[in-house]
Amino acid sequence: MTDSETTRPITVVGVSGSPTHPSRTTALVAAATDAFADALGGTASVIELAPLLSGLGAGAFRSQLGDEVTAALEKVESADVVVVGSPAYRATYTGLFKLFFDQIGQYSLVGKPIVLTATGGSDRHALLVEHQMRPLFGFFQSLTLPLGIFAGEGDFEDYRIVSDDLTARISTSVTRALPLLRSHLGIGPETEQPSFARPDAF
Fold first, then answer.
1. Is 108 exposed, middle or buried (0-12, 13-18, 19+ CB in 10 A)?
2. What is the full per-residue pLDDT of the chain (202 aa) written as tens digits?
3. Hey, what domains does the chain have and what are their CATH numbers?
4. How far apart are CA 189 and CA 168, in angstroms?
5. DSSP 120-182
6. CB under 8 Å to 128, separation ≥6 — which residues?
């Protein structure tokens, strides 16, 4: 990263793979995106994929997609940190989520920090983060951050986060990732070393 790059605001972009609006997944992605942006002194924005569904289905190739979809793809590719989230649907992330990332450049996320989040009807879906989402971003050679964030239906009310436990999990994910992110983005003290997750983080 060059000196000029370190002086611009860090961009944290969230991607919600929920096919509906309003959405618990979008609420979780937005909360995590804001938390990481605040900790890094950066800017936060969230892309909801639900409005892009028809545009993503316009063609099999990126060149066939419209300006709105192309702009969303480019925003993710140029972000410093990406927060991704999907509801659990038939044991994995939504087809909409996969359709969007099928159009991301194969090497556009290499080394990019990715925060993994997911929502589900019960804690039985929590392994979606580790068993489905982490391998997808392993394909992209991304830097998936150690602690994913899962939320169940009980963590929300009227599509708002009401669970102190979920808020604490988001905070823990940020705290544990912050030294690694600062080192990776070149914005932290030179003596600061990355801190990885311990068992008590879960």
1. middle
2. 444 444 778 999 999 999 999 999 999 999 999 999 999 999 999 999 999 999 999 999 999 999 999 999 999 999 999 999 999 998 899 999 999 999 999 999 999 999 999 999 877 778 889 999 999 999 999 999 999 999 999 999 999 999 999 999 999 999 999 999 999 999 866 435 545 444 454 4
3. 8-201 (3.40.50.360)
4. 25
5. ESSGGGTTHIIIIIHHHHHHTT-EE-S--EEEEGGGEETTEE--HHHHHHHHHHHHHHHHHHH
6. 86, 88, 91, 92, 93, 118, 120, 150
